[in-house]
Amino acid sequence: MNTAKRVAMLATAALLLNGCATMSEEECITADWHTLGYEDGAAGQTVAMLGKRRQACADHGVQPDANAYRAGRDQGLELYCTEMRGYRIGRAGGSYGGVCPRDLEGVFLVGYESGRELYRAQRAVNEVANAIESAHNEREHILDDITEMSAHLVSDEATKEERIELLADIARLKTRHTELGHEIEEMEHELVLREAAFHEVEMRTPYK
């Protein structure tokens, strides 16, 4: 298995463990604490994970080998704290828990900040695109409502008072339909600008 796939698998496992490092009595007794530390470090877990594991094993009367765990975690962090790993985490919108040692943190953050910049640019595009889609959906619902109201307006069941109210509601909906059309035009212009900004950031990044 290559390094990238191994890190991805470790990160997934860490997410499952994060917040509750549940370990059975057998797992606590037979644990290779150096390996556990390595896996936690490679997944970017903070040293607080040791405390969670310690608490889980304390329930079974087992004391972790903290020294072995920390030594393994330090080795695991060397796998985690790379420039490319930082980029991938930032690009995915992930957070950084300040786990990298000083001699590795600088290069990790170079990649992380680059990834975060691209993530923010993509998020800005998505926000406008989603707003446009929402506006289109609202316009469609308005047309459906107008059609339904218009049918009731000309029906024999409608009273004079109901017709007056329906006419006012239809006029209001038509106004809103027109307003949404203008809003969509403005948002589509904004979308073009944000897409251009995203592609500019994408072109600058050295990571592919």
Write up what this structure looks like:
The protein is built from eight helices and no strands. By secondary structure, the protein is mainly α. The protein has two domains: 1-80, no CATH class; 82-208. 78% of the residues lie in helices and 0% in strands. The protein has helices at residues 3-17, 25-30, 33-42, 48-58, 66-80, 83-91, 102-153, 160-204.
Outline type: elongated
Low-confidence stretches: 3-20
Helical content class: over 70%
Biggest beta sheet attributes: none
Number of helices: 8
Q: What's the structural domain tally?
A: 2
- Oligomeric form of this entry? single chain
Please report the total strand number as a whole number. 0
Beginning-to-end CA distance, first to last residue = 21 Å
The radius of gyration over CA amounts to 28 Å
Mean pLDDT: 90
Structural class: mainly alpha
H/E series: HHHHHHHH
Strand content: under 5%
